[in-house]
Structures are given as structure tokens and as C-alpha cells.
Amino acid sequence: MILACAALLIGLILLVWSSGLFVDGAAALAAHFGVSAFVIGMVIVGFGTSLPEMLISVQSSFQGNPCIALGNAYGSNIANIGLILGVTALVCPLAVPRAIYRKDLPLLLVITALAALYVSNGSITRVESLCMLALFAAIMTWTVKKGLLGNAIFLTHEHGSAIPRDMPPGRAWLRISAGLLVLLASARLLIWGAVYSARFFGVSDLVIGLTIVAIGTSLPELASSLAAVRKNRHDIALGNVLGSNLFNTLAVVGLAGSIHPMRVPPEVLSRDVLTMSVLTIALFVFGFDFGRGGRISRPAGAALLLAYAAYTASVIWISLPRPA
């Protein structure tokens, strides 16, 4: 058990570190070949914070543990809103731009409703998973085209100032290769630790995915959101979370289900998707413009954080084995 806990901790640390290494190298290489700052920020750096979820999803599905992927995706979405936006708003109240309120939040709510529809029948089939991936590709294509035309919509300002333009191509390739290798190894290590821990404590793979794995793979979003508010870029902090949730709901679950169709426990709909939906709606309420400009205040951030703590505590408490 000590070895499994060490594998979880080391796997999470290496996963976060190697995803940053990979993203830096990829962004520098793209800049070297003249790719626009928007495309680099949107496609490479924006998705870079979701690389841990993607790698966990793919490897856990290949190893026959798709519920870890499902728990990781939905648990990360809940952590992104409750934990990350809660902590970020406590540090600095977040202004909610009207473009995000009118376009991005409604889009995320529709995608969340679609997730509820898919899990409502107790399974996610390969056909449904491929539909998720197709929808994700369509949304990303539309977003990139709009961004290249200069329209400020979903994630158009994502991390453009963080592109390492002075890195030589050789060093960029080295970072990409090293980051990818460590990503794959750390994801495998983390999954092994998660599965062994679940069996040791008598809880399901889903619970481990919803809690430990979800929190660990959400660390890049927390770091980038806090960095954004320090630079007074509230649009990046919010866009980072909303983009990650869209990626998790469609791409991460879609990849997992296309590799290994999964049975969905009933509590995923009644507890996890419901919590994810309530927190997304809460962002609508907190970000509503009453004529003074929408914002997520410190009390709102505290409410999000308390909601996340209550959700996590309830998941762990309910899942603990009871004495006979």
C-alpha cells in the first residue's frame, strides 16, 4: 500500500511537470515555424493543461479501467469550477466578460446536458463516444476559424504571452520527446497506484478517478488560473477552466469510450453529473450582469469551494466499506 501511495504521488508530480515540458517545447517549435500566437495558445498551450486527463483516459481504457477515465473527466470538471475557480476567486474576485457569459457558458451548459443524456441509459457506447469526438472537432474548428478572423470568442486570448519564442528547435524537440515519454510513464504509474489503492480500500475505480486522480490532473489549470489573475487576465483564468471542462466532457470521455465502451454506474448521473451541472449553473448566477458588470466575488468563491469540499467528502464517505 505504501508503494501504491508513492506511485500516486510521484505519478501526479511527474504528470504535471512533463505536461508543462511538452507544451513549452511544442509551443516553441510552432513559433519557430511561424504558427500564429492564437493557434499556438488555443491548440497547444490551451490543451496542454488537459494533457494529463487525456493520457489517463487513454491508458486506463487500454488497461480495462474505463471508469477511472470517466471519474477523472467528470471529477476534473467539478474540481475546475469548485476548487480552482473557488480558490482563484478567493485570491482575486473574477470579472466575467460578457462574451464568456453570453457564448462560452451557454455552450458548456449544453455540453453538460449532452453528457447527462449519454450517461442516463447506464452506458456509453463506441458510437456515442465517436459522436462526442466529432462534436468536439467541429467546435474546435469553428473556434479556430473565428479566432483567426479576429472575433473574441472561446479561448481566443489563451496564454499567447507565455510562448517561449527564443528556444532553439533542437531543444524544443528534446523537450517534446522527454515530456511525452515521461507523460506516458507517469500516467501508467498513476493508474497502477490508483487501481491498487481502490482495491486496498475497497472503493471503486470511479471514486479514485473522481477524487485523487481528478484533483491531481487539475493542478495545471490551478497554476495557470492563478498566474492569469496575477496579471489581471480574468478572461484567461475563466477561459482556461471552461475550455478544460469542454475538453474533458467531449474529448476525454469520447476517447475513453471509443477505446473501451463503458458501463456507467447510476450514481454518476444522480450525483456527479448533477453536481457538475449545478456548479455550471452557479457560474451563470454569479456572473450575471446586474448593470454593474458580472463577477465571481470572494463570497461566491468561498461558496464554490465549500460545495466542492462537501461533494468530495460525500463521495469518500459513501464509498467507504461498512462493517458487516
Would you mind describing this structure in some detail?
By secondary structure, the protein is an all-alpha fold. It has a single domain, classed as NCX, central ion-binding region (A middle domain of Talin 1), CATH 1.20.1420.30. Helices cover 78% and strands 2% of the residues. It has 12 helices and 4 strands. Strands 1-4 form a two-stranded antiparallel ribbon. A two-stranded antiparallel ribbon has the order 2-3. The longest helix is centred in the middle third of the chain and has 33 residues, at 169-201. The protein is globular. 50% of the residues are buried. The model is unreliable at 149-161 (pLDDT under 50).
Give a short synopsis of this structure.
The chain is mainly alpha-helical and 324 residues long. It has helices at residues 2-32, 37-48, 51-62, 66-91, 98-119, 126-148, 169-201, 205-217, 219-230, 234-259, 266-286, 298-319, and strands at residues 94-95, 123-124, 262-263, 295-296. It has one domain: A middle domain of Talin 1.
CATH superfamily: NCX, central ion-binding region
* Percent of sequence in beta strands: under 5%
Span of the ends, CA to CA: 23 Å
Helix content: over 70%
The second-level CATH architecture is Up-down Bundle
Instruction: Provide the succession of SSEs.
Output: HHHHEHEHHHHHEHEH
Number of helices, where a helix is a run of at least 4 consecutive DSSP H or I residues: 12
What gyration radius follows from the Cα positions, in whole Å? 19 Å
Overall pLDDT? 78
Bulk shape: globular
Strand order of the largest sheet: 1-4
Number of domains: 1
Number of strands: 4
Major beta-sheet overview: 2 strands, antiparallel
Low-confidence stretches: 149-161
